[in-house]
Design goal:
Aminopeptidase; 6 helices; seven-stranded mixed beta sheet; single chain; 31% strand; alpha+beta; binds coenzyme A; 32% helix
Amino acid sequence: MNDNYPKQNLFEGKLVRLTAEDPKSLVEANIRWGQNSAFGRLLDDEPLRLWSAKKIKEWIDKELEREPLEPSFSIRTVADDRLIGFIGAWGLSWAHGDTFFGIGIGEEDLWGKGYGTEALQLFLRYAFCEMNLRRVSLNVFGYNPRAIRSYEKCGFKIEGRQRQALLRDGQRWDMIYMGILREEWENTA
Ligand SMILES: CC(C)(COP(=O)(O)OP(=O)(O)OC[C@H]1O[C@@H](n2cnc3c(N)ncnc32)[C@H](O)[C@@H]1OP(=O)(O)O)[C@@H](O)C(=O)NCCC(=O)NCCS
């Protein structure tokens, strides 16, 4: 058995753990994170919008009420149980054993400190050990080198580029597609 296979709690890392989503703390965090345009621009290529606390609460309540087809988690620090971000699957195909995912560390002071990378490593372990997927996919904006580097550290490879698909501040950027196969993940340990 490869070192990546879980011997301990599947959801628990050294810096972060993946937890269930708690509506109250998610609303508070999303109100704060939603004000950070740098964060928003890394996650969304649509023009940014600002939402009222009421709308954010309605959106989160609705999201948490429905039976989710795709697993999603809050990311919390092991040290002080602080809610710092989210990670979740989207575009899941059971037929082909593949899923896309989204990740965001909303607390900007924690970018570049390994919290997101470890959360993604936990998510990959979940995707390959619990969901028994064949591969995991993502897309990332060409102007997000921190994310690209984090994904490469987790074993993802660039598989394609939609050239000059994005326009930000007068500059064109590629949409980058990356993926990791099960056997590549097994070899990242
Ligand atoms: C992207 C994200 C998940 C990465 O997690 P993280 O814990 O911050 O990443 P890490 O600290 O482990 O690693 C970041 C790497 O990028 C490198 N990096 C940071 N800024 C960089 C830059 N401008 N150019 C090149 N590399 C950069 C760091 O040096 C580090 O690499 P190293 O460990 O080899 O030195 C997290 O930063 C995040 O959520 N950011 C905001 C939202 C976002 O971008 N989401 C992803 C959308 S696709």
